[in-house]
Amino acid sequence: MSTWPSEIALLRDLIAIPSISGSEETIAIFVETAMRQSGLDVVRDATGVKMMVDGAPGPTLAFASHLDVVPPGEGWTRDPFQPVIEGDRLYGRGSGDAKASVAAMLTAAGDFARQSRKIRRGRLLVLLSYCEETKDATMPALRASVEGTIDAAVIGEPTNLAIAVAQRGLMMIDLVARGDQRHAGYAGDPGYANAVMRLAQDLVKLPSVVSERLHPILGTTTVTPTMLEAGVSRNVTPAVARAVLDVRSTPAWTHRDLAHTLQERLSSEVIVTSDRLVPCETPADSRLLRSARTVRPDVRSFGSPTCSDWVFLRDLDAFKCGPGTSTRSHTVDESVDLPEVSGARSLYAELAREYLS
Description:
The protein is an alpha+beta fold.
């Protein structure tokens, strides 16, 4: 088996290939070629790229991440697709989210394949999806293409190598209040209903409703009005007032329960426009987490506010962990600290050996 390129060299190559969501073919071909040259089994298709290291019958562990990045946007002081190393930091679009995880997972899989000539049991998968940054994420289809079951998964996203054992979900809700359209001069007449006032009263109620259930790691669900719409003219009361709500949920609520509770407590109409990104949580008896703490006894765990492909692997024994700082994701001059990338390669390889031993 040929020598696998270093995780840093591989990361630089990945960043240099623009792979904005929907345009991942070039990077997928690159990854497929690199893995084949390393003697690893790989399949590339419309759902993503998957690699497998087989052993004796036993559990299946997946390393899962994504190949796409968000557009670079304006304001960069460097070329977003010309990776530049300054000190211990590498700059470029996708450097942290999530090509650092991809590079570390691929090199760790190569290490595992070389060092574990005979896996005592199970198999290791690497699953790299497309369009994770959009509503068209391919991870569900990529997972469905895997033969056999998957028992555990590490989702590669920037966590500074801490372990996210819970992740917020996302609901989008339209809150629609209705009232009487009429001349504002008659607003004091009996029976008059102002849609704007009704909407405002419901917006004020939101924090107390969602705070009724507290998650031990993530705390309370947050509901943030992000858009407001109302008005016909300065002296006309509108018949309709609307707010768009960004709901960051926790496992303390199912999305169905939360929507039902809001419908019961509010006078406005509650219209759920998106609820597919459900909250996730590592099982209390997680064998994967025990394995991680065996190889890294001092690893920190936390609750993550951001969504990821974990949503599509939430029924598994899983957690989110990878190199990079989440708050740098999607920013101009996005960067990753190189020691974390190398640390992730070691962590992933050791975790695979521990879990599949």
